[in-house]
Design goal:
alpha+beta, NADH:ubiquinone oxidoreductase subunit E, 81 residues, Glutaredoxin, 3 helices, four-stranded mixed β-sheet
Length: 81
């Protein structure tokens, strides 16, 4: 599974680097490093709704460090075997 984190300028100012680092830590904590790859993406086209991430083909907008745990549970944990 690929998780793309937008580092376009709008998402960047909303904290996408911190979100990316937190995501990586959560993946390592759940021992999913071999199954989930975190990558960067440039603008995913939803700047006003950022931070925007893409989990395989599923676009998720409005990601914040506050809701990251729920986003991770819903879009990543539930989809890995
Ligand atoms: S900068 Fe992230 S969606 Fe445009």
């Amino acid at each position: 599974m690929d998780v793309l984190v937008c580092i376009g300028s709008s998402c960047h100012v909303r904290g996408s680097y911190e979100i990316m680092n937190n995501l990586k830590a959560m993946i390592t904590e759940k021992d999913l490093d071999s199954q989930v790859q975190v990558k960067v993406a440039f603008c995913l086209g939803y700047c006003k709704a950022g931070v925007t991430i893409k989990v395989d083909e599923q676009l998720v907008t409005g990601v914040t460090k506050e809701n990251l745990t729920e986003v991770f549970d819903e879009y990543v944990l539930k989809k890995v075997d």
